[in-house]
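Thanks for the sequence, V.! I ran Tol biopolymer transport system component right away. Repeating your input here for the record:
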Amino acid sequence: MQRSPVRFALALLALSVASMIGAVGPASAQYFGQNKVQYEQFDFRSFETDQFEIYFYPEEQQAVEDAARMAERWYDRHSRTFLREFQKKKPLIFYANSPDFQQTNAVRGQLGQGTGGVTESIKERVIMPLTGSYGETDHVLGHELVHSFQYDIALRKNNEGFSLRNMPLWFIEGMAEYLSIGRQDSHTAMWMRDAAVRGDLPTIRQLTRDQQSYFPYRYGQAYMAYIGGKYGDATVTDLYKMSGRVGLDSAFVYTLGITADSLSEEWKQSTRDAFLPATDGRTPVDSVGTAVIGDPGADNQLNISPAVSPDGRYVAFISRRNLFNTNLFVADAETGEIVQELEGTRSNPHFDALRFINSAGAWSPDGRRFAFITFADGRNEINTFNVQTGEIRTRTAVENVGAIHNLAWSPDGQSIAFSGLEGGLSDLYVYDLDQKNVRQLTNDRYAALQPTWSPDGETLAFTTDRGRDGTNFETLEYGEERIGLIDVASGEIRTIRPFSTGMQHNPQFSPDGRSIYFVADQDGFKDVYRYDLDEEATYRVTELKTGVSGITALSPALSVARRSGRMMFSVFSNGGYSIVGLSPEETKGERMTPKEEASNTAALLPPVQPKGDGLVGSYLEDPTTGLTDVDTTQTTKASNRLRLDRIVPPSVGASVGGPVGTQVAGGIGFMFSDILGHRNLSVFVQANGTIKDIGGGVFYSNQENRFNYGVGISHQPSARGRVGRTRSGQFVQIVNRIFRTQVGAQTSYPFSQTNRLELGVGGTRYGFSQTVRAFNRFGQSQEIDAGTVRDPIYFARTSLAYVGDFSRSGLTSPLQGGRYRFQVTPQFGSRNFVSVLADYRRYFYREPVTLAVRGLHRGNYGANEFSGELTDNFISETLGDPYQAGFVRGYSFNSLLEEPNCRANLESCRVGRLYGTRMALGSVELRLPLLGPEVLSLATFEYLPTDLVAFADAGVTWTNEDLTDLSFSSSTIGADATGRLGTGSTERTVAAQPVTSAGVSARVNVLGAIVMEAFYARTFQRTKNWDFGVILRPGW
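Predicted structure:
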């Protein structure tokens, strides 16, 4: 939306510069905020291929060389699909594993474990971790390079007017999924079957408006597969190019000749026709076994990664039981009753998160302890906790293993096997719990995932892509997952592939060791099977309408009790996951004959008969076209050169008349960083009027190490003017200027993601000037002597702060957790004093409301802190604000003008209960999300998220010469002879009493750009009992 007023443009520039500075500064530059911790320092190097600049560190070189070959092949594929070539090489930054990736500075903000990769628009970098499975790494890379082509189109100068904002997320991500996976995908097909069975296939309009209910990746892929199949794959990219110019709805008409509504109905009917007949005769999820955790009929549940205890009495699993926290639970395996919950990350300082998307935990043989994987200190750790008490007993960081997946506790209780990633490659490891050492069982490029012990402890079954028809590393042709068996003593490996097609993974031994249970999608449906090792025969255990699955296609979903044989598995239905149990008798299954091995047409996204051969299908079946060798003999150290990221758009405006006269104002900002995001530089210049009103600043930060630091210098003039008339009738214009020049350095040391220590030093100079111009009756002016101008004021300062932030944010304010900041800042110079800050906030969430509590103290202490000038802004603290309500709603300096007793003594009024050298505040709020996303709010309306708030505020200010009386007083604000506002006493020792208010407010998030709060407060120390006001800031 276009806005033309000059003041708005200048305000926007100031906000842009402020955000730019905040973006490049270390975490310590924030008042609160969580930390991205650089636990490790990576020795990044680079080499070039035909189309890419590759950045990596030495321990991942082998895997990155292969990833670079994948990238060149994907470039060839996507360039043919988009009919486009890059004009310059794109940067690809690879990390060896997910814990390393989460430390990257190339992406702002925190990265969750669900983020498989990022393509950003500033430098058009692809940043991603290696997965340990070449097939999965290839898919993620192909997905991200679709985004790279999308940005290459959108950001080029010859495409001015092209807007990504016209495109919904399902369209962008669905295209990337389709062009990197194709139409054959049992995981997405499972989602579509589920939606078809329950009659909830979304229209394009629903997909665009309700991303919470309809996962953009899965449904977007299904829609793109339909468009590519019916109209040809070339239309998928044509649709993107047209949508950026005319919007998606119009692009459907121009490109496909059909409206979005008609296309939606076609897709829905095609999906029903393709999937519903295939479910005939198959078992509904709510009719298989016993639903133990969750209700298969409920929507959008998350109950995953089951691990059943050896005796079958308990099941450990990962679940999200509220809006914010995914946690580990232990439940009765018969009734589902929760018997234990792990102390979560919100209150446990020892780890940042549980690993849950691609990992399950393991029980000790006696069933007393449970092992699970956490993210802590920049790596994965193996934690064990006492199931009875919930106490974490041990924390183990395995040396020389970057990431850990899927634990398996040995039958003798002496060791834990796991899949580990080192250098981007997955291998099997065994950790000896007594000797505290680790043994590596495999050492190659094949995937080695999801290990499980045989009952005799001699063999590990695992998921792999090795064996006949397995992965070919020369052509990078990937074998489908199958089961491997490794002799732990000798290291000898053999593979089992019960079906000739499809994924077969998540092996589990039967109690007698003669069978292996596993999950397979050989017919397009993900079900549980049993393979008899003696008979070499396969038995079908389940035949579900939807499927047995975790969050991703390779996530663990199956567990079998080591002694009892009870089986637990997670099933997908109604857009979520529940856990089902089978008795040992129910796990035997029905024997399959070879002819029962079907083609997996049920995994094919409609239309079943696509138009032509299909460009996407053709290149996915062709592993060699575009595949080139890469030369890594000439690697160089990654460059630290700063490159321009963006320019804060220049703005120019003018104002005519007013107390400061005619002025021209404007500004511009520049933001630079290196390719890895470690070093950042920002420069800005602002001008407001004359040459003396030019200001600017330079800020540099370095975040390469755990110690983040930044330095900066700035000069900021500000001017205030007034006009008046002399006794002779001559008009006079007076302009007062303050010039603030600052230099400073700051460093922070994060202890974890949630707390840090900050140290800062700096200096500030305040200069003053006054210009007086007299005007005659003809409008002519001359500058006259302004008299004595105030001497400059200087301060040198040091600061030390301890900051914590474990809050979870809502749409207008925090909803859960807490924040705190404790800071001491000695200041020396024209004033000598020590500033003290203590700010503590807690948020208690009980769906749907949050109880928020805050306590704040700010004070300036020292020998000459009080000079008799309470209005000295360098040492004063306030509860109010000149223009809007401050800390205590209903009180501002302007509100004093409305008080009868203040009109006679305005100067004293301005330094009353709202002004002192020390202040304390207490606030309580009850927050209710009224409008917003369905998962959070009472009413669904995402365009204007709104919270209703009931609040109570109380605050008090005082000086070192005041007594303090914290008792409630309903006396209204009035002026006394000393300048303190109390009950009329003329003694200096009059008590400084609090001001209080209570009321209701509504906080509104306006287009994601600003939070506005409108309040109606009962003020207890004002003549005007009720006050209405507006505050432009997020809730505390």
